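Chapter review: from sequence to fold.
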Amino acid sequence: MQLNKPFATVTPTLDGDVLAVLASADVTFTVSQVQRILSTASGEGIRKVLNRLTAQGVVLHDEVGRTHTYRLNTEHLATEPIMELSRLNSTFLSRLTQHLGEWGTALRYGAVFGSAATGRMTLSSDIDLFLVRATDYGNDVWEQRVTELARLVTAWTGNEGRIVEFAEDEFRAAVDAGEPLLDDVAQQGLTVAGTRAWFIAQLRSGRRS
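The token string follows.
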């Protein structure tokens, strides 16, 4: 799946893109406003989708003078699953955070980075995870957890989970060596375990020394 295009999991058509826009805010939209967000779609195509969704009752249409506005019908039976779909990215991050929270003090820091963090996923994209473990934590248990985490990420999304992991001493050595990956995580990573403040502090401390 593409976390940045959640409706594509159920429909590859323009309908999903339009619903994603309408579900993004509880406000009214004109066709031109939707088109500015969906820059590759035609105004006529968007208008047809909105009219079709209006006929289904999912969208409410209003006309003020010559201006036509549209908004999601929050009372429609289909609205709850539509909103759930629109939140797939945050749902994934929340589920990941909850799962990693069960690892306790073994996990010092975790973040999603790469295309899943920057909103540039394609269907074939991996989901990149960065983990730092406590140096004195047992390798066997850790490896089992990492293997299970990769399996869960694929089960949740359909995308392969690619996990980059460091023991804490290895992480500090990578900081000292100026490992470029760490800059990517610092600039674009989405923290899912530990705190971003801890991660940034380690980078700054290592580079000062």
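Two observations follow directly from the output. The beta strands are 59-64, 67-72, 107-113, 127-133, 161-167, 190-193. The chain is about 50% helix and 20% strand.
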